[in-house]
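To whoever is covering the structure queue this week,

Two jobs came back overnight. Logging them here so there's a record in the thread.

Job A:
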Amino acid sequence: MRIARVATPAGALTAVVDGERLVPVGGGAQQTLLSLAMAANADPALRPAAIAEPIPLAGARLLAPVPSPGAIRDFYAFEQHVRTARSKRGLEMNPDWYELPVFYFSNPYAVLGPADPVAAPPRSAELDFELEVALVVGAAGRGVGLDDAAALVAGFCVLNDWSARDVQRREMALSMGPVKGKDFATSLGPWLVTAAEFAPDGIRGVVPATMLARVNGVEYSRADLADVYFSFAEMLAYASEAAALRPGDVLGSGTCGTGCILELALTHGSTAYPWLAPGDLVELEVAGLGVLANPVVATTDQAFTLDESRRRPG
């Protein structure tokens, strides 16, 4: 089942995607969507009753399926992406990468939905997309084992982990971060696909799905979710070690191989793959999950400046 949040004149609604129409089935609260997803996972034949007339999908304003996650943990789980980035810095793969499914925490207050505009931070000239899949938690858990991980999953959606590469580079050279290079925008959408539909064989094995990125209609990236090194069960179990997961939490897969401009430019040159600029349209597509599209716009935010009156001479 594909479940969306859609804006209407009467307010946000939760709707089941039925072909080229949206069938409203409840209020637009995040918890409504998660509860419906969990119920549909328990009973894939579930068909919730409509509460209003269907809405044409074409022209509908879709909202982020999970607008207020308690936490966003973004993993680093595709070996090709990691290996390419490290090799260009003269680094071998760290053996610990194969043992620890590491992640960073992103900003849960910077979630955007389909068609929402994205602007780079004001000090950045190197805006990048990152093509990922998000797992959305639907039930609470702590210290979850691999065999029990699937019971916590509501569903999956496309994730764009926007990055300001120049800011990120400076921050991480200080052994901190990602910080402002990442926390300005994370796009989720276009809807949530239940775990029963997207991963019918469970989440301990691979979930094959073609992953594509296009900029202004030109294909930039092509990969397969099945190439991920860590399973979603391993990611969820590691995230829950000595820490609680709650409904609405988001776990990102990390960037797939070729799934960002940074990696493409390192391999093929920055002339072929320039950084994003206002006016660009980024479309991320994952088979079975849909297309998440966002336009890039110029920032209107003010840049941070130091308080020079507090600096000491020399």
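Job B:
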Amino acid sequence: MILEDYLKQYPRVAVAFSGGADSSYLLFATREAGCLVSAYFIKSQFQPMFELDDAIKLADSIGVSLTVASLDALCDPEVVKNPPDRCYYCKKAILSKLKKISLEDGFSVLCDGSNADDDETDRPGMRALRELGVISPLRDCGLTKADIRRLSEQAGLFTFNKPSYACLATRFPTGTTITPELLVKVESAESKLFEMGFSDFRVRLLPPCGAMLQMPACGWDLVAARRSEILEAMSPLFDRVVLDLELR
């Protein structure tokens, strides 16, 4: 089905908004389809500040109201234990809160930005979507990440080439306890690298006290050129820093 026709089935819709490329285009498309739409962003320990800044900027640029709500992601012991399906517990908590506050605002339909490339077998959080009745218009209409980036560029959205960004909890190896202190270290390290000009990378924990910097091939020259600065920025946070040549 064409996305515009799909969205016209829902004259009032709330969007679970992350500030990334997918949910940004979905938010734009709902407005273009003539829906009464409102965006909802959850700020937890797992979302760095730049994601919220981008969400505010995008919503403002297309004239859609944005509600920001807070969530203590570490209040669920299953999330803290970080099992293989941690994303399910986290996503369920986020979407449950979004459904509650959006329903209070008069929106009975909540949608998210999952796309046709998202593999349910690799994303435990998608089970929470089904259980809570959250719809995924981009996925249902067969739109891939490449489609979304192309359409976003045509629409003039600054998020069209924004690198994909997984939440900070993904920096912890499965089974490694997630703590506020380690989350702060990871976010701080990534913020310092952003300030150096890096844009597509991950800082992953190497227990007990190390970190692994993952960078695509296009960033290796910059890593080599700024090696000393990287070590100076990250050494107060981690005892050991290694470079992984494969970004996953």
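Note for Job B: Strands lie at 12-16, 36-43, 66-70, 110-111, 202-206, 210-214, 240-244.

Please reply-all if you pick these up so we don't duplicate work.
Q.
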